[in-house]
Design a protein that fits this description.
It contains one helix and ten strands. By secondary structure, the chain is of the alpha+beta class. It has one domain. The longest helix has about 50 residues, at about 1-50.
């Protein structure tokens, strides 16, 4: 009887050690997945918005198009400077958003309302681009918390440019870049190497200048 109790105690101790090890690994894995989910979602939205940018304007009024700007810029409806402003065909029709799929999207850092001294990455969307009111309705979407900096660089075919603006007819770059590089630097314990991704832009036109032709009588 004593021997059987001793063997059972040894078996229970071994099972207990394995069980607690498995529970610890489960908790660590869950924390890692939960921490990576917002980042994966932010990267997914960034990639989709950049892949669906529409033909830019060069200071002229066009339908189904809009400016592409990157750097430190001021955007209509945004209280702080944004890192990028683009017109992209990622909007979806719904009961509350009965507009076209083209929407104006900006990405910017804002002070966090939950942690003092922390900044969060927001995606701001304007759907009703033909609104008759002077101030458009902007929807702010929290993408990622604890971000130190976000940077967009545009590739012109030979080098990366930190600023890009197609809204000015006299601008050096009046077409879309060939590719866009995004760098996100996290803060706190996540402050390691910056998160980088490069998104090719496939919808670059030969020119976005307004072409005119003489009519024959």
């Amino acid at each position: 009887m004593i021997l059987a109790i001793g063997v059972a105690a040894i078996v229970l101790a071994a099972v207990n050690a394995v069980l607690f090890t498995a529970l610890h690994l489960r908790r660590v894995t869950t924390e890692a997945v939960d921490a990576a989910t917002p980042l994966d979602q932010a990267v997914m939205f960034l990639r989709r918005d950049l892949q669906c940018v529409v033909t830019p304007t060069n200071g002229t009024s066009k339908f189904l198009s809009g400016a592409f700007r990157a750097g430190t810029i001021n955007s209509m409806g945004a209280s702080e400077p944004v890192a990028v402003e683009m017109f992209t065909a990622t909007g979806a029709l719904s009961v509350n958003s009965p507009w076209a799929d083209i929407q104006r999207v900006t990405y910017e850092l804002k002070n966090s309302t939950e942690a003092a001294g922390q900044r969060d990455l927001f995606r701001s969307v304007t759907r009703n681009l033909l609104s008759i009111s002077g101030t458009p309705e902007v929807e702010d979407q929290l993408m990622l918390s604890g971000v130190e900096s976000v940077k967009f660089s545009c590739y012109d075919g030979s080098r990366w440019q930190e600023a890009w603006d197609t809204s000015d007819a006299n601008s050096l770059y009046t077409n879309l870049p060939i590719a866009v590089r995004v760098e996100i630097q996290m803060t706190g314990g996540n402050a390691k190497e910056p998160i980088q991704m490069v998104v090719p832009i496939d919808c670059v036109a030969r020119t976005n200048m307004v072409l005119t032709s003489a009519t024959r009588g």
